[in-house]
Amino acid sequence: MHHGDVSPSIAYGLLELKKRIDAAKIPPSKLDETINVAIWNIREFGKKRRTDAAIHYIAEILGQFDLIGLVELRDNLTDLGSVIDILGPSWDVVYSDWMDDSGGNKERTAFLFDRRAVTFNGLAAEIDAPREKKGMEYLASQSFWRAPYMCSFRAGNFDFIVIATHTRWGDSIEGREAELRMLADWIDSRFKNKYVEDHDLIVMGDFNIPQIGDKLFKALTGRGLQVPDALIELKEGDQIIKGSNLGQNARYDQILHLPTLEKRFSKTGGVLNFYGSNAVVKKLFSDKNYSLTEFSFQLSDHFPVWVQIDTDIDGERFNQIIQNSKKG
Known about the structure:
The chain has 328 residues and is an alpha+beta fold. The protein contains nine helices and 15 strands. The strands form four sheets. A six-stranded mixed sheet has the order 3-4-2-1-15-14.
């Protein structure tokens, strides 16, 4: 991390933030053995410039992980660039374009990753809604408000694909349910195809699902997506909490996988609660008098959700080679 010659107030805030990070009990990843993967909705990141303190705090939080899906990233990437400068030269990012209309909200989706642990494999694509031929045109009967973004990565000898998305908000629960079901159907169809780049899939995002088990959750998981065991009960360290939002009462943010990946997920995962209390807010921004809402526009109204993944697959590969030779 390259925080440089920061002001005393930012230095004080970084020390306080490290206490919150320690409370999350995120185990270190091991090269070619494990990676720490996270999803974070950074509230309207890029719409309005963050303070210098917030940029340093966001970088410190992101630096705890190896691969992070970012949602609610906006069209202006200046603040993201400042964060990457602090993270250092080994960090890189792949990101989507933005949508100008109200549904798109000028949002991008991005994958930020540390090249020492994770490399980009070449696939980067937005997911289109299924189309049908109508006359001479191929048109979608429904749409993603913000197209899910899909990229391929490698960690050690483990190749995988990650999809990240920010599902529509608003009063229409039926519209949100239909969008979640459409994504589940698309995944089910595409990942049964023999030409898919890899069958190991991680799906992450802010799905705007209030609770695990509700009808929105069932729409998303109806085709086989599963929550890792480590995230069924959401924890901050050893403490069970009820949500990934600042109010800790909703399970908006999720990391899921297809059954083929079940054994890849370790038993460690949870949230990084950078808030803690109003007293922490004052310590992080000692020269301000932020309300909780103002604080959420500096850091976020969502916590990062993370899980550790086992990427050491050499033993499995060698066993498969031996089994294939016996079949021959």
